[in-house]
Amino acid sequence: MSTDTRARESEGTEVPGDLVTSGSRPPSRSARERLAAAPWHGEERPYDLLRELTVALVVVGLVAVGLAFAVGSPDDAPITLKGWATAAPADFVTTATAELGRTSDTASYGPPYSTTKGATQTLGPLDLQSFSGTRYPIDTATTFVTDPLTRLDPTLPALATWNAANAGARSSWTDAYTAAIAKAPGGSPPKVAPGNYGPVPAMTQDLLRLARQGGLDGTIRVGKAFTTDYTPTILFLGDGSYFQDLAASQNLSGGQWGVMNETGNYPGQSWLWLFSFWYQVPAIGNLPNADLVIVGIMLVLTVLLAIVPFIPGLRDLPRLIPIHRLVWRDYYRRR
Amino acid sequence: MSTTWTGHLREWLLKRLPPEKLMPETQPSYVTSWIYVFGMGSLVSLVFVIVSGVVLAMNGPAWYHVSGFGHFVNSLHLWSVELFFLFMVVHLWGKFWMAAWRGHRTLTWITGVVSFGVSIVAGFTGYLVQTNFDSQWISFEAKDALNATGVGAWFRVADLGQMLLWHVTILPLGVIAIVAFHVLLVRVHGVVPPIDADPADRQLTDPEVLHVD
Amino acid sequence: MIHDSLVAMLAPGIFLTWGILGIQLGNLIVIASIIVLFVLALVVPMPTGRKRK
After folding, report:
1. Phi, psi of B27 (to 5 degrees)
2. pLDDT tens digits, one per residue of A53-84
3. Is residue C36 within 8 Å of A273, Cβ to Cβ?
4. What is the pTM of this model?
């Protein structure tokens, strides 16, 4: 009978110093593999599964309840369009102008909101963003400004002027007003220099007034027959600086490891550390297709983690760095 | 020997997982390390996540903003989630350094990683339905990753109704199903023996009989 | 530039940075706890209470 000493790739390197006990064959790799796969017929100790579960429930329960009492949880009030318009009217008007002029981030986002060419995140020939198509079309001028104003009062004179004008006139008004606000003292729209801005100042002031009265929050979401969908609100808020500045002040921006952070000192989602990490590396985080690349990296890494048992080298690390000798020190000592 | 589908299934199940294996009263003597409690810790944390989540669900998503008890239940939900991931990560690290996939336990390992992934998605949707500033910001940022991969118009992170339904029905069902499968696999295959455990070891050739204290 | 906010918000948390690495205090405590618990689980002996035959 030949000794079974095939070197099996799956078990990594031979561990030296194996003892041969009397009356048995030399220990072999495949015998150990069979042992790992077979039901354990060796020494056992008593075990009360239900009692352990109960003890665990009590211990973890005490810790969780204790933390809930002692530390609590964050709950920062949501930003409403009313709140934005009241706290930062200049930013609100600037953003509304950009929406009218279709120069905001949302207007040039590409699918699913717009058909802007070249806006999608691609990876070579892969263009998943276009693949979905413009399934959620948003015309920023109508969704964020003219539709709400029309619902408020279809007879507004500024609206009539806007509706009668052609595309060229409209964009020259919005461009001029945007530039004028930037030059105004403190960036304040009421202090802009006189110029040809058409109905844009009046429209944005009407929208501001509507927002401050609380009427815009609801009406901005009407028209697409959705009632729980806050996408227009979030996109409009995000096109401005107020919302983004608040997030940055709480270290929630992408370049601040924001993905894993929470407001205040509360712990966030620390398990997202690696997803967040790639955004901090300028070579990756500053890419125009950063989101697509990073999602791809994380999908690949997750699959690799799942198939560790099949990856030579990686699966041998536990053998090479024998932390397991601590776990099973009692077994090894008494074998 | 059975001839019906039901009978065949019952026989197969009982063969794979007889009651003594599902609810044992002994465990191998090598299971003596604190590292082994973290699987149970994760499971128990999940119980608290679900229980606190059910209370939040019963009262609707706006309740915890206006109720003191609601705020406490929300805090409990947050901290049991933090504990859930904390214990799960220690459990993962332990199982990696123990090479716990050995002995046909590859599927146990894979279902563990999938549990991790599905839990992360479940937690993500939870953050999206907080109806506060944090959820607004997270939905604003997350839309970019989902839009870049072409699914953002379908999986709308700023749609409270859709995200809440995913968070409260689809994902808990998914987490529970995969975790249950994972735990059953552990019961079927048993806890993995030590690396380099050998048939010639004394624990196998001359086992002591250990008494309950 | 932070605009005057009428929104009551938590004071920004403590955020520690080293180069591109930055971590919030809450997360740091959680991650440190994970590492500490892992090490303790490996080194702290478990009470076995065995009676030998």
Report:
1. -140, 155
2. 999 999 999 999 999 999 999 999 999 999 99
3. no
4. 0.91
Query: What tokens does B144 get?
Result: 């970019």
A243-284, pLDDT tens digit by residue?
Answer: 999 999 999 999 999 999 999 999 999 999 999 999 999 999
Our count of domains for chain A comes to 1
Q: Is A266 on the interface with C (CB under 8 A)?
A: yes
At A69, which helix (H) or strand (E)? helix A49-70
Interface partners of chain B (CB pairs < 8 Å, 3 or more) are A, C
Structure tokens belonging to residue A269:
């989602």
CB contact under 8 A, A24 and B199: yes
Structural contact between residues B49 and B80, judged by C-beta atoms closer than 8 angstroms: yes
Q: Which domain holds residue A191?
A: 81-247
Q: Do C41 and B213 touch (CB under 8 A)?
A: no
Rounded-to-integer distance, Cα A290 and Cα C11, Å = 30
For residue A166, tell me if it sits in a domain: yes
- The residues, ordered by sequence, that sit 6+ positions from B153 with a Cβ below 8 Å of its Cβ are A111, A112, A132, A133, A135, A136, B147
Residue A21 has pLDDT above 80, yes or no: no
Distance of CA B73 to the CA centre of its chain: 21
Contact B78 A68 (CB under 8 A): yes
pLDDT along chain C (53 residues), means of 10: 51 88 93 98 83 42
Strands C15-18 and A44-46: unpaired
For B98-158, where are the alpha helices, taking DSSP H only?
106-128, 133-148
A281: closest chain C residue by CA:
C20
In a domain, A37, yes or no: no
Question: Looking at this protein, which amino acid is placed at residue A226?
Answer: F
Contact C46 B32 (CB under 8 A): yes
Q: How far apart (Å, rounded) are the C-alpha atoms in residues A239 and A253? A: 15
